[in-house]
Amino acid sequence: MARTEEEFLCFAVSYSPESSCLTVSTEEVLLQPLDIMEPECESFGQSSVFSQVQFSCAELLVTGQWRHLAVTAAAERKGICTISIYIDGQLLDSAKAQYVQPLPGSFVSMDPSSFIDVYGYVATPRVWKQKSSLTWRQGPAHLFEEAVSGETLQHIFKLGPRYCGNFQAVELGGEVSSLSIRTGALVAQEKISFGINMMSSGYTTIRGIRDGYGQVDGRLVAKELELSSRDGMTPVYLARNTAGRLAGPLRTIGSVAVSQYGTRVFEACPAGVSLNYVGGPALLLGLLRMAEDDSSMYATVKALHSVLSSSTMSENQMRQMGGYQILAYLLKRKSHLLNSRILHLVLSIGGTAETSLGSIKNREAFQSVVCSFELWCHSPENLDLSLFTHLTEILQPSRDGNWNAKVAHQMQMVPKLLLLLNDPRIPRLRVSKICAVLSCLLQGHFSIQDTLRIGLFLVYTLSPFSVDENETCLDDVPELLEDALSQTSGNRIWLRNQLLRMLLEVMRSDQLHPSPEGSSPCRMQEDVFQALGPDWFLMFVQSHVHVSTAVLVVRLLLHFLHNRPLLCRFKEGMAAGLWLENSSRGLSFLTDNLKSCAQVPECSPYLLYGFVELKTFLSNSIHIPEIYFLLSGLLLATPVCEPPEAPKADLDSLLQWLLRNHAADSIAKVGLCPEAAVLLLEMMKAVVNRVPAEAEDCWELSCLGHVMQFFCMVHRRYSQDPLWCNADFLQALALVVFPSAALQGSPESDPSASSLLLPFTLDPARKPVWDFTCRLLMEMLLVVPAHRQWHPMEMLLEASAESSTTEQKYFQTEILVSVMDIFPIIAQEDEKRASSLGRSAAARSASAPAMPTLLMNLSYFAQKLVEKLFAGMFVENPRKILLFLAEQAAAAAQKASPHKEAILCVLYSSLNRAILHCLFSCASDQPRLLSILQTLQQQWDAIFATHNSSPGFVTCLLHCLSQLRPSSSSEQHQEKPREKPSARHVFQAPSREEQRTDHPPAPKNVQEEIWKATEDIWSQLLSQRRLDLEEAYKMALSVESTGEGNGKVKMGGLAPPWEETMAKAWQQFLGLCL
Question: Are 955 and 1061 in contact (CB under 8 A)?
Answer without folding.
Answer: yes
